[in-house]
Every structure is written in structure tokens, then in C-alpha cells.
Amino acid sequence: MDAVLFDFSGTLFRIESTESWLRAVAEESGAEFTETELTAAAQALEAAGAQPGGANPLELPAHLAEVWSVRDESAALHRTAYTGMSRRVALPDPALHDALYERHMTPPAWAPYPDAAEVLRTLRDQGIGVGVVSNIGWDLRPVFLAHGLDAYVDTYVLSYEHGVQKPDPRLFTVALEALGAAPARTLMVGDSRPADGGAAALGCRVHFVEHLPVAERPDALLPVLDLVGVARRRAAPTRS
Which of 59, 146, 156, 214 has the greatest number of beta carbons closer than 10 A? Predict the structure, then answer.
């Protein structure tokens, strides 16, 4: 393989828990919640699908169905979709809905999976091109930079910057052209079969990982190195 394309959310990084998300915004804004109220509000936001990168909504309201289906095609659509979901939940201050949306775009809201740095660094060391192809409505580059992973990424292809979202093959094509890679020699790694599986239409090999909390998925990315024919780094021997 000459190149590997990675999805962002649920593949290389994971968003914080809904409760952590709400707690951080409440503390910054001075909004007052009892622990019981905060827990209940976080659960309601999660059920509503209000957190980008978090759980899907349990129910999709009719008035948001159209914008939800194309939410990753522009920054405006993305904000409208997610703040619309958030506003289905009553919070003590209406301004919290916009504050929650702003919070999810900050580096502290995201954590890389434990093996992400090792995999990206090894691919870079072996001269294999790396691209990030994401359905998203905001610029995720600062997240990679803040977590020290930007140096291992050759190109970012973000849906909102191109007005098209996965599984449309056009988004993957942009990444392949940027890397100068042939589809048959490219691996796409993601957590969504419907979205990331779109790369297969071009002839890319596709590998899926599970969208789990960081603590529950310590090494799911390591098999990527085997798939592209790169030896994993051996752990240094421990001293007795």
C-alpha cells in the first residue's frame, strides 16, 4: 500500500463524554446545575443526538430531517443541525446550546485513541502517505496540532470545505489526488460502513474499527500496519 486514509471521529479521535461536555460548558459559563440535573440533562442531550461525534439521535424530528441528512456539506448546515438537536433539550440558559456547539470544536473536547500516534508515526517513517477524510462542519486541523499528530498527516479532506460528504466517491478522490495514490494501493480506515465504505467504489481496500470510548479501544488501529505491510515497532525490553 502507498497510502492510508483515515476517518476522524471514532477512528483516530473520540469526543469526550456527553456529561464531560456539558460539565465543561456549565463551569465556564457559570450555569448552575445540581449533579442530578446535570446527569439528566446530559442523558437527554445524548438521546437527542446533540453532540457532534457522539451518539446518533434516538428520534429524528421531521423539521430537522432534511438538514440532518446534509449536515456535513457546510459549516452553516452542521451548526444548524446540531444546535437544532440540542435545543430539543431544556437547559437553564438558552445560550448554553451555542456554547456546547463551540466546545465540541476545541482540542480539549477530543482525545486520540491510544495507538493513533504510533500508527501514524510508523506510516510516516515508512514513507506511506496519510490523509484524513472526514464528514465534518468545522476545521479539525487544530485538534491534530494540539495533540501532536499534525506532523504525520499529509492532507486533510473535510466535507464542509468541498460541499460533498462521504460516501460520495468525490471526497475520497480529492484525497487520492492530493497524495498521488492509486485506489488499488490505498487503504481507507473508518468506523462507519455506510460512509467510509464509499471508498470501496473507487477500488480502495476498506478496514473498519469500532466507535468506542478511548479506554475501551487501546489497540484497534495497530492491525492497519499489518494490512499495509509495515512491521510494528517492537516494545523496548523492560529492565528487571
Answer: 156
What are the residue ranges of helices labelled H in 163-217? 169-179, 193-196
Nearest to 178 by CA among 200, 196, 162, 197: 162
CATH 3.30.750.24 fits 3-13+110-227, yes or no: no
User: Helix, strand, coil % (nearest 5) of the chain?
Assistant: 50, 10, 40
Residues in the chain, total: 240
* CA angle at 231 for the pair 189 and 240, rounded to the nearest 5°: 120
What is the spatial distance between Cα 111 and Cα 214, in angstroms, rounded to a whole number?
A: 7
Q: What confidence score (pLDDT) does residue 233 get? A: 54
Query: What is the tens place of the pLDDT at every residue in 12-38?
Result: 999 999 999 999 999 999 998 999 999
Looking at the chain, the domain(s) classified CATH 3.40.50.1000 span 3-13+110-227
SS3 label, residue 135 = coil
List all residues 6 or more positions away from 96 whose beta carbon is below 8 Å from its beta carbon.
25, 26, 29, 31
Which pLDDT value is given to residue 202? 98
For the chain, first and last CA: distance in Å?
Answer: 39
Q: How far apart are CA 133 and CA 3, in angstroms?
A: 12
Tell me if residue 206 falls in helix, strand or coil: strand
Question: Cell triple for residue 43?
Answer: 442523558
Residue 116 CB neighbour total at 10 angstroms: 22
| DSSP classification of residue 233 | P
Query: Which is nearest to 204 in space by CA: 230, 181, 178?
Result: 181
Mean pLDDT of the chain: 95
